[in-house]
Write a structure and sequence with these properties.
Blueprint: H1 3-10, H2 13-25, H3 29-43, H4 61-65, E1 81-82, E2 87-94, E3 100-103, E4 106-109, H5 110-114, H6 117-122, E5 127-133, E6 140-142, E7 147-155, H7 164-169, E8 179-186, E9 190-197, E10 205-207, E11 211-212, E12 222-225, E13 234-235, E14 240-244, E15 248-254, E16 259-261, E17 270-271, E18 276-280
């Protein structure tokens, strides 16, 4: 165990996350602007593709961190599935018949990750990928394909960092952290899932249809079902579906189908939102 991993177990991550959330929401310029400018310097962030391109246009750190981009900044590739976010691909693989997802050097169960053994069983033989959003990345999450929202499940959990080295060091970390699980119906190939995994210093997870999903003090599993044909719950490929306040990870679980990964879709490779992920064979 490295010293960084050891500190993850010792540090009061929930308290630190809550404190960071208060600072990140502050709209006092004397607090917000130094935080924003220091973050830009530390991570070398380029605001040229953002709708608001100067730090002074942002009213809080979270306002800056969840910044929107120009519509043309992330064109969609012509593909059946595209990346839901900017980030690093940390895992690509299949959901095995044992309902275990392979991670580098470890395994963790799809049923635990999804908090639903029956729905995990439905995805046996399917495919999954994990995208890590580093602090410098664009932090809005978009639809990898078209889909209609079926259900959403909030699962409370730990607040470990989701840095790739720490994910590899702590068994089943993604299935232990706080997360939001969203089930969608694909127009042609069945149900697919997007899991938004919270992490250290992530103040909240926000969806376009619900707003903030994990308000402070709610420490129990909660489910929502969307059974009607509400047009607002039907999404096109590339539509925004949510965002993180501070960095985290997105796991996409796809139904069983013959797919080939895009040429640039490699573990440890950088991807942009809208970049071709897979192409499905007829």
């Amino acid at each position: 165990m490295t010293i960084t991993t050891f500190l993850q177990h010792l540090a009061p991550m929930r308290l630190l996350t809550r404190g960071a959330g208060y600072l990140a929401e502050s709209r006092i310029p004397a607090i917000a602007q130094p935080l924003i400018r220091a973050f830009i310097r530390q991570h070398g962030i380029d605001l040229s593709d953002a709708l608001r391109s100067t730090p002074s246009e942002y009213h809080s750190f979270n306002d800056f961190f969840t910044r929107q981009l120009h519509p043309e900044a992330r064109p969609l590739d012509k593909a059946d599935w595209v990346s839901p976010a900017d980030g690093i691909v940390t895992q690509v693989g299949t959901i095995e018949a044992t309902q275990l997802i392979h991670a580098k050097g470890q395994r963790y169960s799809a049923s635990t990750l999804l908090a639903d053994p029956a729905l995990a069983h439905y995805l046996e033989g399917g495919h999954f990928t994990t995208v890590y959003l580093s602090p410098r990345d664009y932090h809005r999450v978009h639809m990898p394909c078209a889909g209609r929202l079926l259900s959403m499940c909030y699962v409370p959990g730990k607040f470990y960092s989701v840095r790739p080295d720490i994910v590899q060091a702590i068994d089943g970390l993604l299935a232990r952290n706080e997360r939001l699980i969203c089930w969608f119906q694909h127009p042609r190939c069945g149900i697919f899932v997007m899991v938004l995994v919270g992490a250290a210093i992530v103040g909240s997870i926000h969806t376009t249809w619900h707003g903030v999903v994990n308000p402070a003090g709610k420490r129990r599993i909660k489910r929502w079902w969307y059974r009607d044909e509400n047009p607002s719950l039907c999404f096109e490929q590339g539509d925004e579906m949510g965002h993180f306040q501070l960095g985290s990870t997105v796991v996409v679980l796809m139904p069983k189908a013959a797919v080939s990964w895009g040429e640039t879709w490699q573990v440890n490779g950088a991807v942009k939102q809208g970049q071709a992920q897979t192409r499905m064979h007829a």
